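Pipeline run #58 for the internal structure catalog. This entry was flagged by the ingest filter as a single-chain record with no existing model, so it goes straight to prediction. Upstream metadata was stripped on purpose; only the residue string is passed forward. Reviewer on rotation: M.T. Logging verbosity set to normal.
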Amino acid sequence: MSRPSWEDYFMGIANLVATRSTCLRRQVGAILVKDRHILATGYNGVPTGLPHCDDVGCLREKIGVPSGERHELCRGLHAEQNAIIQAAVYGIQIKGSTLYSTHMPCVVCAKMIINSKIKNIIYDQGYPDHLSLEMLNEAKIPMIRRCEK
């Protein structure tokens, strides 16, 4: 039996984390890893204790907001945001960590990633947000897209 590479292992975990998402449009999982140790995980969903989108519906769907636009018109937080917040709540240092995400980060998450001093991003699926790519490139944060899905 062959063992998965570290990259495959952590991306597999990010994909498992995504299964907790209650978003009706896209299930996203993210994990922060440093020195081959998982620091925090996150998936996209509403703040703790609030009704989930799969219970109350999707505001963005109702008003026809295209993917990658008007992020403020969503009840949920993104997976990357939740991983960063989880680390902050528990006092975990994420500077220099690697973000493994099922999807490329949006511009809001990109800004948080830059200021959190996350060193690189490994992701599987794209996301229609050119400003995110521009800012992450400008900040010299390497992004590795693993595959086309």
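catalog note: The mean pLDDT is 94.
catalog note: Strands lie at 29-34, 37-43, 98-103, 120-125, 143-145.
status: ready for reviewer M.T.
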